[in-house]
């Protein structure tokens, strides 16, 4: 993802109100860290400037990279995920610092351009850098689009873990007319895959739904209708709760594959462990801020995909995701209500007031 000057603009706005900022580039990824104050607690706004590709340009009603306001909606790639939140964070801090220049604690910004992509040179590297030099994040607001019907109606106080598997089942290629001279890996693997798909991994708990196993890709064969494939490639993912660990899942899957006597190779990739911020200081402040600003009650949720909160929570920080409606993210004609961004800025400012004054 090409940052295209977004982080430079953010740093300029923050430096203008007294933040110190530094570029933290790792590999080809642009990141920055900014801080206002040198006391604890440290409340950090975290987010990303990168976006997913726009898809077919002809299906957009306006240029996805030229913001356009129509009927009260701001259209553009990243409007909801998550440049809108970044803008709200900046304006909230501008208003808060102007009113409270000598506020308690500190405010930080941890911004990356590697969230939608591989996520290997972004937030995870910045966190390592901060930990190594002794900076500890106490509270963190991630601007991911968490809301459902209106800004603030849902906040994410945790996320499920995400474990990926790339399974290669080995067979023996041959002619379909002579199956006794071949070994069809699709036939061999089918009972094991059926068992994996039907397993009850856990029943979840009060914070997380039950663990889900999903096959995302299946590939076998040469493309010819008279050739038994030699290998079957299966990609799968598990979104798992705090009832399980990565190792328990691995052990159970290997046991099933071994029981079916498959000849296989399995490569694992962990996207993130599950994390949870229980009700407490940050959750209470966010709920109170939303109630005061919008006169609604918010719902705590751990649903959805992963976020960079998975890299921040293990440091001991309380982490919440609070952003605009997620109905159009990653879609053609992504948009967000202009009023929702103003509301979001007001919520962020109230949270700052509650925690740092």
What can you tell me about this protein's structure?
The chain is of the alpha+beta class. The chain has 8 helices and 19 strands. It has helices at 6-15, 79-99, 123-132, 185-198, 246-259, 281-294, 309-312, 338-356; strands spanning 20-23, 31-36, 42-48, 68-70, 73-75, 106-112, 139-142, 154-156, 158-159, 161-170, 174-175, 212-220, 227-228, 231-240, 264-272, 275-276, 299-301, 318-321, 335-337. Strands 1-2-6-3-7-18 form a 6-stranded mixed β-sheet, with helices on one face. A 4-stranded antiparallel β-sheet has the order 12-14-10-15. Strands 4-5-19 form a 3-stranded antiparallel β-sheet. α2 crosses α8 and α6 (281-294) crosses α8. It is elongated, with a radius of gyration of 23 Å.
How would a crystallographer describe the biggest sheet? 6 strands, mixed
The averaged pLDDT comes out at 96
- The N- to C-terminal Cα distance equals 37 Å
Globally, the shape reads elongated
Output the helix-strand order: HEEEEEHEHEEEEEHEEEHEEHEHEEH
Total count of helical runs of at least 4 residues: 8
% residues in beta strands: 25-35%
Helix content: 25-40%
Number of strands: 19
Using only C-alpha atoms, the radius of gyration works out to 23 Å
Class inferred from helices and paired strands: alpha+beta
Strand order of the largest sheet: 1-2-6-3-7-18
Outline the secondary-structure elements.
Elements: H1 6-15, E1 20-23, E2 31-36, E3 42-48, E4 68-70, E5 73-75, H2 79-99, E6 106-112, H3 123-132, E7 139-142, E8 154-156, E9 158-159, E10 161-170, E11 174-175, H4 185-198, E12 212-220, E13 227-228, E14 231-240, H5 246-259, E15 264-272, E16 275-276, H6 281-294, E17 299-301, H7 309-312, E18 318-321, E19 335-337, H8 338-356
Parallel strand pairs: 3-6, 3-7, 7-18, 8-17
Antiparallel strand pairs: 1-2, 2-6, 4-5, 5-19, 9-16, 10-14, 10-15, 11-13, 12-14
Helix pairs in contact: 2-8, 6-8
């Amino acid at each position: 993802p090409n940052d295209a000057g977004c982080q430079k603009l953010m740093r300029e706005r923050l430096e203008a109100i007294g933040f110190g900022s530094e570029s933290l580039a790792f590999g080809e990824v642009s990141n920055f860290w900014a801080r206002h104050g040198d006391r604890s607690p440290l409340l950090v706004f975290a987010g990303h400037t990168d976006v997913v590709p726009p898809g077919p340009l002809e299906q957009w009603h306006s240029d996805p990279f030229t913001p356009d306001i129509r009927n009260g909606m701001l259209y553009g790639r990243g409007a909801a995920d998550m440049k809108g939140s970044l803008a709200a964070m900046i304006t909230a801090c501008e208003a808060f610092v102007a009113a409270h220049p000598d506020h308690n604690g500190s405010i930080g910004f941890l911004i990356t351009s590697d969230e939608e992509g591989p996520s290997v040179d972004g937030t995870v590297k910045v966190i390592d850098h901060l930990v190594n030099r002794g900076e500890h994040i106490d509270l963190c607001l991630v601007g991911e689009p968490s809301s459902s019907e209106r800004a603030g109606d849902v906040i994410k106080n945790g996320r499920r873990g995400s474990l990926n598997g790339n399974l290669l089942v080995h067979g023996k290629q041959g002619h379909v007319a002579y199956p006794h001279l071949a070994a069809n890996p699709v036939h061999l693997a089918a009972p094991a895959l059926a068992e994996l798909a039907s397993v009850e991994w856990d029943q979840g708990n009060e914070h997380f739904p039950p663990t889900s196993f999903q096959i995302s890709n299946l590939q076998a064969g040469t493309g010819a209708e008279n050739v038994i494939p030699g290998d079957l490639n299966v990609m799968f993912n598990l979104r798992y709760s705090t009832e399980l660990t990565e190792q328990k899942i691995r052990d159970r899957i290997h046991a099933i594959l071994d029981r079916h006597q498959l000849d296989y190779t399995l490569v694992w990739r962990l996207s993130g462990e599950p994390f949870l911020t229980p009700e407490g200081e940050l959750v209470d402040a966010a709920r109170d801020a939303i109630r005061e600003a919008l006169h609604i009650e918010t719902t705590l949720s751990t649903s959805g995909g992963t976020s960079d909160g998975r890299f921040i929570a293990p440091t001991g920080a309380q982490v919440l995701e609070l952003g605009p409606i997620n109905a159009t993210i990653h879609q053609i004609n992504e948009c967000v209500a202009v009023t929702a961004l103003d509301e979001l800025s007001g919520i962020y400012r109230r949270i700052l007031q509650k925690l740092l004054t």
